[in-house]
Amino acid sequence: MKNFPKVARDMFWAQMIWTFGFLGVMFIINIVKIVINLVRGTEADGYYASVLIASNIFMIIIGLLAIYFLPYYVENGVTRKDYFKGALLASVGLSLAIPIITAIISIVEQFIVTTLLNINFRGIDIINEVVSDVDGNIIGDLVLSVILTPYVDPGSNWILAIGVFSLQLFIFYLIGWFISASFYRFGTVTGLLFILVAIMINLLKDYFLRISLGLPLSDRFSTLDSLPQGVTVLGLLLLIVFTVWIIRLLTRKVAIKM
């Protein structure tokens, strides 16, 4: 009997409980910021922009915790394969749910704030432009690839915006899972090497996505701008397949720690 649908359902709702807490905290913070900007008479940051930036780190953390569901399921007779398939499906559902919920709340917030309170939201196009100001520092590239990720304005194309948002959340989840699975399987020393691989996966994701969307690149990778869009899209898909494949290998025969 295949147990992965139940694993997917259980993990999805367990992680959604954490997600509701995260989105709730972000909503409260955003309301406080709007009140402050109302008093000052300045533009405010919208809920969508706030979640867009913070959710990347949140998804890495959720991914890091994904490996700790494995001992529970194995102890209850679930195979490692079913755990892997269920966790993967749960991550896809989570990556879709967060942008959709965020977009709905953002639409309601924007109507209330701009129509009733007459406050304008600050544009966040700078997220896509600031990368060109980085002076070729690899640390700066890494920070930007986590915090200021490629962005599509929902007002211009909401389907593409949700799709890009979801894709990035999914990859960040995989990166966290990739790291925690390596530590669980091999220990600290080898796990640190896998962190370096995860960093490269994230940087490549960022640059492939930027090229695919026609967004600016940092000077370090400006030569990649000439790559055809089809190549970068294929690169993104291969990057995801590679990460998923390695996670499967890491969890396939891992010893369960009690």
From TrEMBL:
Entry keyword annotation includes Transmembrane helix: yes
Positions of transmembrane segments: 12-36, 48-74, 86-108, 158-179, 186-209, 229-250
Lineage: Bacteria, Bacillati, Bacillota, Bacilli, Bacillales
The keyword Membrane is annotated on this UniProt entry: yes
Keywords: Membrane, Transmembrane, Transmembrane helix
Coiled coil ranges: none
Name the record gives this protein: ABC transporter permease
